Amino acid sequence: MGYIKACKVLPQELVALIQDYVDGEYLYIPRKKGNEKSWGEANGTKENIVKRNREIYYQYCSGVKADALAERYYLSEKTIRKIVSIEKQDAKQSVG
To answer: Is 38 inside any structural domain?
Structure first.
């Protein structure tokens, strides 16, 4: 998330009013209702993790052991097993 200078996008009167409340501090303005984005959606992180998890699942199904996958992806074996379990459930729901 980048910062935008308020004086570049807001009327001067509004900037002056905001300064009465938070002079020189950072201010977060949330998105409007319905415009929210979920975690990782804006920068592609979520999509990358979904892709990685599918790769892990397919490799596991192809016979690659959890410990080898953990080392390859820098994750714990417990995390690999959790990913495999979730992907397995998702695959079952997609089929039937």
So the answer is: no
Nearest to 52 by CA among 36, 73, 71: 73
Specify whether the CB–CB gap between 75 and 84 falls below 8 A.
no
Given pLDDT bands bounded at 50, 70 and 90, which one contains residue 96? low
Q: Which domain holds residue 81?
A: 45-95
**Average pLDDT of the residues of the chain:** 90
- How far is the C-alpha of 52 from the C-alpha of 50, rounded, in Å? 5
Contact 29, 4 (CB under 8 A): no
Residue 19 has pLDDT above 80, yes or no: yes
Tokens of 91: 């695959």
49 plus 90 within the same structural domain: yes
